[in-house]
Amino acid sequence: MQKIRVMTLNLGGGEKNFTGSPEQTENKAEALVQLLEEIKPDIFGVQEIAHYIDADGITHSMVDRIHTDCGFQHAFYGETLSMKRHMQVKKDLMVNGLFNDWWDWSKGNAIFSNIAFSRLSDTNKVGVPRNVPLFQPVSYEGSRDTDPRYVILTRLKQAPYPFVLNLHLTTLVGERGENAWSEVVDAARITRSQQISGVISLVEKHVLIPQLPMILMGDFNASADEYTLRDMLEQEHGILQLKPEDSIATHPRAGAVDHIYFFPAKRLVDYNCFIVSTPLSHMISDHLPVVADITIQ
Fold first, then answer.
1. 3.40.50.920, 3.30.830.10, 3.40.50.2000, 3.60.10.10: which CATH number matches 2-296?
2. 292, 281, 247: which is closest to 12 by C-alpha?
3. Residue-wise pLDDT tens digits, 171-182
4. Do residues 53 and 103 make contact, with C-beta atoms less than 8 angstroms apart?
5. Cα(171)–Cα(173) distance, rounded to whole angstroms?
6. Half-sphere exposure of 285 (CA within 13 A, CB side)
């Protein structure tokens, strides 16, 4: 039996991590470190974490900061977007980086752990997480509509050796708010369903069919009652949402879009899930962290 505390948080975009005054950036980093010291997750999944390499070749990395200052023993960064691979003049951050002589800038997802990662096929050996594409545009056009989307896949080297997935699904410009376009809303939901279909295809043979334990977390950009999650994950494949004790929005405009799921239900002994809504968590991002204490057999 394994007891584990899992936490997921969208840091709110690379732009918010590394623009503005150095003092503001430092304050956000210090707030995140303090929050992690209070929550003490065993596994921390992050979306939209960023780093850049400045004109002198020095890397400024939030991944390194969290890894070092929070004492996580293991960390993995999965790039989704970068200046080198996706340079786009419509992206202000990339243009500003160019004129600041940055060698590169990138954002992506990351996973931090106090439990070693194992190979996916052999839990007796140390492994490295994989960064798997769910959506890759033909051409990046500088907006969220064409942001590449990935899922990090790993496995923990501690019995019962659960698989852990950390992802960030698509949202489209014009999908949110009072003036949302119905055509855009429908297109966004279809896109997310295609990406979740990709996740299912990824794990079906090696995780779902043999009924191995799996934790799925991240920013789904969808409420739990959207078809993509309610039908495709829960009803069709038995991937259970760990429902927070407080039903509050994790994002001020998008609603409750950050979630933690578990599979299979028969391996779940107990859980407690909650959303961290404190002055400290509001300082860090426009998203709120979701935390789950999970007991797995």
1. 3.60.10.10
2. 281
3. 999 998 888 889
4. yes
5. 7
6. 27
